[in-house]
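Fold Annotation — chain and its backbone
Next Lines — sequence and tokenised fold

***
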Amino acid sequence: MCDLVARTGRHQQRYRDGYRLVAGCIPFRYKYCAEECDDDPMKSVEVLMINSQSGPGLLFPKGGWENDETVKEAAVREAVEEAGVRGDLKKSLGYYCFKSKSHQDEFSPEGWCKAAMYALLVKEELSSWPEQSTRDRQWLPVPEAVEQCRHKWMEDALDVFSKWLTDKVSDIEEEDPISTPSSPLSPG
């Protein structure tokens, strides 16, 4: 049985300039892959997606940012509630505006939302979580995740994530003192 309970209702929901404020993340993990990765960071990483409750396609966990929490706390909470994972936020992936057909209210009558998205390195996958009865989770390589995204704005966040990941790997390679020619550790 799950000890955690998902927050419900809108009494704590944040709004700004007609937008419902949302926080979410792209949960990711590094997978072991020997030769088949070919130094391609996209082959050594998987992202976690969840099913949509309102139609086909997959989503990243996200939900309302509430008054009693920071945006980062909201992103981490949504990862636990919707996807059943805990981890460390590693990178802000930016803000994304979208229109929600199911979340129109007096403060956002047209359903406009603004989502702050983060990369979340998964440290723990829970066996029980608040929305497990309505959410299935699926680990996917990044190229497959792009094909499965239900919303264009989530594809855009995934693109920013992919660029960050590629740059991160490039930075590591550039800092490697063994392979840097000017390094005092280099042979010759």
Observations:
- Residues 175-188 have pLDDT under 50 and may be disordered.
- The radius of gyration is 19 Å.
